[in-house]
């Protein structure tokens, strides 16, 4: 038997077996397989499911940023609108107050003269009655002038004027041979307008 030949032993079944196992070679082979497996796992391409999960994560992060931006813009717009609403409301209140003050100021002198006329009427006698009437007429003319000064005009409604439902309010009808159809026979209360806006319709009696 040659010195290079492995020494064999025969057991009871006459089967040859090796004398000993090279444990170092086995361990080296196992370590090499482990390294190869880890490298293959790192280099393995991502599956469609993995890519979807990555995209979902990116979309979630991007969605949160977009939502925060929209919320910030909404809050800014809401704050601007609220400031605008408060400012315009305040301006309207000031305009209304200024208008009331301006109109009242124009009528103060008229009220003063009316008070004086009333005091004079209380102290009057038969001889001064004519002066009282003249004083009341003066106050009436002053009232008309004050209305014109603030832009308020009397609606034409003299006897014989054609009835206009946009300007006049027919309180009653009457037959009158001296007047044409739908003409004003009598004025119960004068009407007034500001530019094209009717403040009060003239209350009239309409003929025929």
Explain what you see.
The chain is α+β, with helices and mostly antiparallel strands and 208 residues long. Among the domains are: 65-150, GrpE nucleotide exchange factor, coiled-coil domain (Hemagglutinin Ectodomain, Chain B), CATH 3.90.20; 153-208, Head domain of nucleotide exchange factor GrpE (Nucleotide Exchange Factor Grpe, Chain A, domain 2, Roll), CATH 2.30.22.10. The chain contains 3 helices and 8 strands. Helix 2 runs antiparallel to helix 3 (129-149). 6% of the residues are buried.
Return the CATH architecture of the domain at 65-150.
Answer: Alpha-Beta Complex
Total number of beta strands:
8
Fraction in beta strands: 15-25%
Radius of gyration: 55 Å
Helix content: 55-70%
* CATH superfamily heading of the domain at 65-150: GrpE nucleotide exchange factor, coiled-coil domain
| Low-pLDDT residue spans | 1-21
Kindly report how far apart the N and C termini lie. Answer: 157 Å
Biggest sheet statistics:
3 strands, antiparallel
* Mean pLDDT over the residues: 78
Main-sheet strand order equals: 3-6-7
Order of helices and strands: EEHHHEEEEEE
- What CATH calls the topology of the domain at 65-150 is Hemagglutinin Ectodomain, Chain B
């Amino acid at each position: 038997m040659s010195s290079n030949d492995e020494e064999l032993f025969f057991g009871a079944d006459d089967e040859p077996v090796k004398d000993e196992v090279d444990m170092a070679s086995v361990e080296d082979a196992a370590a090499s397989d482990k390294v190869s497996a880890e490298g293959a796992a790192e280099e393995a391409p991502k599956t469609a499911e993995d890519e979807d999960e990555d995209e979902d994560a990116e979309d979630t992060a991007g969605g949160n940023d977009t939502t925060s931006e929209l919320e910030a813009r909404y809050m800014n717009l809401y704050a601007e609108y609220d400031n605008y609403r408060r400012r315009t409301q305040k301006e309207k209140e000031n305009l209304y107050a200024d208008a009331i003050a301006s109109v009242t100021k124009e009528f103060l002198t008229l009220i003063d003269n009316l008070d004086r006329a009333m005091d004079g009427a209380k102290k009057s006698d038969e001889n001064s009655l004519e002066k009282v009437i003249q004083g009341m007429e003066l106050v009436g003319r002053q009232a008309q002038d004050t209305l014109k000064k603030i832009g308020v005009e009397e609606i034409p409604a003299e006897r014989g004027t054609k009835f206009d439902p946009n300007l006049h309010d027919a309180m009653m009808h009457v037959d009158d041979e001296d007047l044409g159809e739908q003409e004003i026979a009598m004025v119960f209360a004068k009407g007034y307008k500001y530019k094209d806006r009717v403040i009060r319709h003239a209350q009239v009696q309409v003929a025929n």
